[in-house]
Design brief:
Elements (H helix, E strand, L loop, with lengths): L38 H16 L11 H12 L4 H14 L3 H5 L3 H8 L6 H16 L8 H5 L6 H12 L8 H12 L10 H9 L5 H17 L18 H4 L19 H14 L4 E2 H5 L5 H13 L4 E3 L3 E3 L4
Antiparallel strand pairs: 1-3, 2-3
Helix pairs in contact: 1-11, 2-3, 2-8, 5-6, 9-11, 13-15
């Protein structure tokens, strides 16, 4: 459902006929229904006011974080909760306060510092972005959205988030939390689709405030609302600043009708095996023999598949003599 700004009807009214030739009285002209106020305008002020009073004090929101701190946080927060990101983020920016500092290190050091955040290819992508920023932009995170999007490892969401949160620009920042808020408040659905759709993007753009500063605050505020109040489970509607106009709540909170939303499993998966293999390599000060890696998982076929996947993804570098290490180039 896309919110359409209200445009008053400016056409001149029809002039009644001078005489009536029919015995049947003319039907009265239909009275146009009152147009509703634009949806976005009704949401912005209460959500932003709520955010001003309830926003968490997170290090990447502080002025000293700068654009690089914002970018690091956005990479780390993908599919990872804030409480797990916080200690790794603090160590990361202390060690590499600028993109050039990270770019000077081999990519394997980024993988090592990533620790147990999961999805470690994000570490390689962040390292690649740091190298590109250093080589193409003199070490400064670019302000232009298109230049951000051209960096390796950066997609539409991350480019929009950095442009909005670091530079106060007007972009639709559509993460899982924002999508859930819009699904419930505007379209009346409990959950958004499993993957972002074109209709969701159109809706998010239609709801953007025109003013850049207000738009960037709206992006952060709607995201925080989804993270703290309009959560996936056990939402706290009594704390929501827009509960009185939430389409889903007003409809009686109808249950989700789409495909079942399955939680991700971890135990026994290749992801778990990959994590164990990387854990050994992160702790090692030098190359690790195959025999040491073989001890982390009993099932040889799955272990070999996981190790091959790590090598294919560039997260592990094989060496002659059956040795392995984190990537150096």
């Amino acid at each position: 459902m896309t919110a359409t700004p209200y445009t008053p009807n400016t056409a001149a009214p029809t002039t009644p006929a001078a005489s009536v030739t029919s015995a049947t009285p003319a039907a009265p002209a239909p009275v146009p229904a009152a147009a509703p106020a634009p949806v976005g305008g009704a949401l912005h002020e209460p959500v932003i006011s709520w955010f001003d009073e309830n926003a968490r004090d997170l290090p990447w929101r502080r002025p000293e974080a700068g654009p690089w701190g914002v970018m690091v946080s956005e990479f780390m927060l993908q599919q990872t909760p804030v409480n797990r990101v916080l200690p790794v983020y603090e160590q990361w920016v202390a060690r590499w306060p600028r993109p050039a500092d990270l770019a000077e290190e081999p990519p394997g050091e980024a993988v090592r510092a990533w620790g147990r955040l999961g999805y470690p290819r994000r570490a390689l992508r962040l390292h690649g972005a740091a190298v590109a920023i250093t080589e193409r932009h003199g070490g400064d995170v670019p302000t232009d959205h298109a230049q951000l999007l051209a960096l390796p490892g950066i997609g539409e969401y991350t480019a929009a988030a950095v442009a909005s949160f670091a530079y106060g620009q007007r972009h639709a920042v559509l993460d899982t939390n924002v999508r859930r808020v819009l699904a419930r408040a505007v379209t009346g659905a409990q959950y958004p689709p499993n993957a972002a759709t074109a209709a969701e993007r159109r809706l998010a753009r239609a709801l953007l405030p025109e003013d850049e500063r207000t738009a960037s605050r709206w992006a952060a505020a709607s995201m925080e609302l989804g993270a703290l109040v309009c959560t996936a489970k056990n939402e706290t509607c009594h704390r929501c600043p827009i509960a009185g106009q939430c389409a889903w709540r007003l409809a009686g909170k109808p249950a989700h009708e789409g495909p079942a939303r399955r939680g991700q499993t971890y135990a026994g998966t290749d992801r778990q095996v990959r994590g164990k293999l990387l854990g050994v390599l992160r702790e090692a000060v030098g190359p690790v023999p195959q025999a040491v890696l073989d001890r982390v998982w009993d099932e040889p076929v799955q272990r070999a598949r996981a190790l091959d996947g790590l090598v294919s993804d560039g997260l592990v570098e094989p060496l002659p003599g059956g040795l392995y290490r984190l990537p150096m180039t």
